[in-house]
Amino acid sequence: MGSLGISRRRLLGLGTGAVAAASLAACTDWTASGQASPIAMRTGSFTSQFRPQVPTGWSVAVPEPADVDSSQHPVAVFLHGVGADNRMVFDDLHADRVLAQHVARGGTPFAIAAVDGGESWWHRRASGTDTQSMLSEELLPLLAGQGLNTGRLAVFGLSMGGFGALLLAAQHRVPGLRAVAAMSPAVWSLYDAGRSDNFDDAEDFAANDIFALRPELESLPKRIDCGTRDNLVYSVKDYVKGLPGEHEGEFQDGGHDSGYWSSILPDVLSFLGRNLA
Questions:
Q1: What is the b/e burial string over 164-200, where b = at least 16 CB atoms within 10 angstroms of the residue's CB?
Q2: Helical packing angle, 258-276 and 95-104, nearest 10°
Q3: Which DSSP string do the residues of 89-152 spell out, in sequence order?
Q4: Cα 85 to chain center, whole Å?
Q5: How many CA atoms lie within 13 A of 85 on its CB side?
């Protein structure tokens, strides 16, 4: 299991960099079912020792109902897909609006955090990039410094990020994890030597074999969805078929696109909220 240990100097360094780069947007009232629920967007970036070549951007959507202390909000960390960044879940899927509607309807308030992972496939690579360690050793302390409750966590993602969320959960890299959800996860049972983007080699695939790691998810609440017009659907069905323990999710009409992911996001956030309560 990756350590969450981080020195006070390192945490303060992260905090200083984050605050210097961050902007706190004015709260926006999204109205649902006759109610209004304000969402505060916080954004920033930091220099990661695990992604040393590029700045690492982050965004957090925090619900701020008047009768709830935001310091008690648990966090759901979102992992993006190939070609995207931390803004995708908000700019394309409007997760801040969906979260506002979730809270306005009586769902458990929680924050949604997203961070840049590049094309790493959310695991350590031969290049030295290690986005799992970035998440556990840098992002989570940063979120705690934002006043959020990182002792109650969930992780979710789509496509490459769906794979990453399942892998992160199965490898027990995040203490306090309450649930995992994957939308159209890019999972394969066999190594493809013709590709080098997702795994460095056969040994790297074996070390991060999401199918072999399925027993590690037996006791964790989990939800997996995939569209029936998605090229990944048969692989995802194969993965789900051998998944131990109870799980939620459906195979609905849809492709590998934002339209499908937007359609299921309310149900995904409801699942996360129930398990973060």
A1: bbbbbbbbebbeebbbbbbbbbbbbeebeeeeeebbb
A2: 40
A3: HHHTT-HHHHHHHHHHTTPPP-EEEEE--TTSTTS--TTS--HHHHIIIIIHHHHHHTT--TTS
A4: 12
A5: 11
Write out the two tokens for 262. Answer: 């937007």
- Which residues, at least 6 apart from 182, have a Cβ–Cβ distance to it below 8 Å? 156, 157, 158, 162, 163, 165, 166, 222, 223, 224, 225
What's the pTM?
0.88
Say what the alpha-carbon torsion angle 128, 129, 135, 141 is, to the nearest 10 degrees.
60
Which structural domains are found in the chain, ordered by start?
8-276 (3.40.50.1820)
**pLDDT tens digits along 115-160:** 999 999 999 999 999 999 999 999 999 999 999 999 999 999 999 9
User: What are φ and ψ of residue 226, in 5° steps?
Assistant: -160, 140
What residue type is 137 in one-letter code? E
